[in-house]
Design brief:
Layout lengths: L3 H5 L1 H11 L10 H25 L12 H22 L3 H23 L3 H18 L4 H10 L21 H24 L6 E5 L3 H12 L4 H9 L2 H4 L4 H10 L12 H7 L1 H8 L2 E4 L18 E5 L1
Parallel strand pairs: 1-2
Antiparallel strand pairs: 1-3
Helix pairs in contact: 2-3, 2-5, 3-6, 4-5, 4-6, 4-8, 5-6, 6-7, 9-12
Length: 312
């Protein structure tokens, strides 16, 4: 251990021991894990240098962000920063590093991959990178000091005072909608694996019809109480006459649909707003609620669980 600083660098050592164990816990030194952390630091340093170079002379503001996805990323990062503050107050070093070094970096890399180097990504990066460096400087002071100077600062990052994080960037409703999109992406991935599709040209997405949403609201408000549901439906003559309603009610009750965490009403509109993000992720064209439905997949759509048809 005597040659740690020369062999690994002080920043690598500090980061590894902070992430490997909480205060008061013995730590195992695992060479393979140390090398993984080193590689991660190198990727982080390269990522920061490249993007600081791109934005440090630009005047960028929140109102220049055009995509909802970019706003979601910014919202999640600021929420991470607030949780990091809490982790530090409770001396939870492992949680602090998991959030600020790994999770935030993953968010930024995903944003760069999905948005490219366009203005949306540049604005998000510009708005968070200085606070991000300040937070990380507790563990990687030398590397963060170098990046701080590279960004144009003449003072030392170690002497800067943390400012309050801008909580106006947090948008809970957008994050909630993005969970819906994330669930859809998971479903698309599962279907692709099942059908073993490789060369996919188009993915058709069908949202539930209006009557299913109306029935789902009633089932949720009555928490699956069948008699109460039927009583409510009798007041809705159009619904009670629909022969498909009763089987659908039984399906919702069996699935305890009222316990579903993600529940959005404007599915089609949300899909349209995140369409470009979805297409970038699945590398295929997304078509929403098309009349083209050769296998009548739309019949299987339920609220917050769109049906899918994949065309190779």
């Amino acid at each position: 251990m005597a040659d740690i600083q020369e062999k690994y660098s002080a920043d690598l050592f500090r980061l590894y021991i902070s992430h490997a164990a909480d205060l008061g816990i013995n730590m195992d030194w695992k060479e393979k894990e140390v090398q993984n952390v080193r590689n991660h630091i190198n990727r982080f340093y390269k990522f920061m240098r490249e993007n600081i170079e791109d934005v440090k002379y630009l005047e960028l503001e929140y109102n220049q962000i055009g995509s909802d996805y970019a706003k979601v990323i910014l919202s999640k990062i600021i929420r991470n920063f607030l949780e990091i503050d809490n982790a530090l107050e409770n001396f939870n070093l492992r949680r602090y590093l998991q959030l600020c070094f790994y999770e935030t970096f993953n968010l930024m890399q995903d944003a760069r991959k999905s948005l490219g180097s366009n203005k949306d990504f540049q604005v998000v990066f510009k708005l968070v990178y200085e606070d991000w460096l300040k937070i990380l400087s507790l563990t990687m002071p030398h590397l963060c000091e170098e990046l701080w100077e590279f960004s144009g600062h003449k003072d030392f990052i170690s002497k800067t005072i943390w400012s309050e994080f801008n909580t106006t960037y947090i948008n809970s409703s957008l994050e909630f909608e993005f969970e819906y999109i994330s669930n859809l992406l998971e479903d698309i991935t599962k279907v692709r694996k099942v059908i073993k599709a490789t060369n996919i040209k188009e993915i058709f997405v069908y949202t539930a019809p209006k009557w299913k949403n109306e029935v789902a609201k009633i089932v949720k408000s009555k928490k699956g109480e069948f008699k109460s549901i039927i009583s409510e439906l009798k007041a809705e003559s159009n619904l009670i006459k629909n022969k498909k309603v009763m089987p659908f009610i039984k399906t919702l009750i069996n699935n305890r649909s009222w316990d579903t965490k993600i529940s959005v009403e404007n599915e089609s509109e949300i899909l349209e707003r995140f369409k470009s993000y979805l297409e970038a992720k699945v590398k295929s064209k997304i078509i929403i609620n098309s009349e083209f439905d050769p296998e009548t997949k739309s019949d299987k759509a339920i609220p917050n669980k769109p049906a899918l048809y994949i065309k190779s």
